[in-house]
Amino acid sequence: MSKRDEYLAGARAGIPVLLGFIPVGIAYAIMARQAGFDIFETCFMSVAVFAGASQMMAVGMYAQGAGLAAAGILGWKKAPVMVSVLCAIFAVFVLYLVI
Asked: For residue 48, which of 58, 35, 36 has the smallest C-alpha distance?
């Protein structure tokens, strides 16, 4: 089995996980729009935070009257762990493609 075939098999195996994220994304988008975020802010937060629970918590805090700074700081509290894990996954993926 070639690396490409292995990659495609892994991508197919990940489809159920992807389907599980779609309802969470829809729920976040509805919540953010109801809190007063515009489309750019809603999308930017999805790109910047990349953690559904933190996004929902930050939007909920903002909707309750907390400032963006407070919501952002608490939303990013787990960022160091998340970034280190993503870097490790990316490094393994790059090494896999090179080797």
From this structure: 58
